[in-house]
Amino acid sequence: MANGLLDDAVATVRPAQKVRGRVARVLAAGGETFVTEQVESLSFSFDGIEGDIHAGTTRKSGGREPWYPRGTEMRNERQVSILSAEELCDVAERMEIDQLKAEWLGGNLVFEGLPRLSMIPPRTRLVFENGAVLRVDGQNAPCRIAGRSIASNFPDREGLDLLFPKAAARLRGLVGWVEKPGIVTAGEGVTAFVPEQWIYEA
Question: What is the pTM for the complete model shown?
Fold first, then answer.
């Protein structure tokens, strides 16, 4: 590679950083739906949240993985759903509803104080004060399924299921998987160790 091209590539690298926040709420889906409910603590194993509907080392592929036949067994990189208290307020305002609860979206963790949570990049390590560590896979794209869950709580409003994917674009939070097991409780600190970032262009 020519030195000029290498220099250009190096110049676009953004340094690693760490950002601190707080766990505001912890929730789990213990039933047959993705809707969660608040719990006192979450116990993370390598399979995810023990007893949660999304727990497991592997999962079946769906509409998010069109490169596989639906139902293909694959690595479960969506063990945990992470939301931002601030972004939930932003989306509620965009949808003109008085509140947007993490439960309706199947959220497991609600953070406070991590700016632009949904834009935190893949490979970021979320290190909790009590020792558990999650690894960010990426953004959780908003969909009509979550939109229908929201709409069921506002029977007098039409079209919320369709509005949600638009209003929550890049504000829907993150999904991730367990790198180091542990117990997470509301109120503890969390630090996002954001890796170096760059834009890849072939």
Answer: 0.92
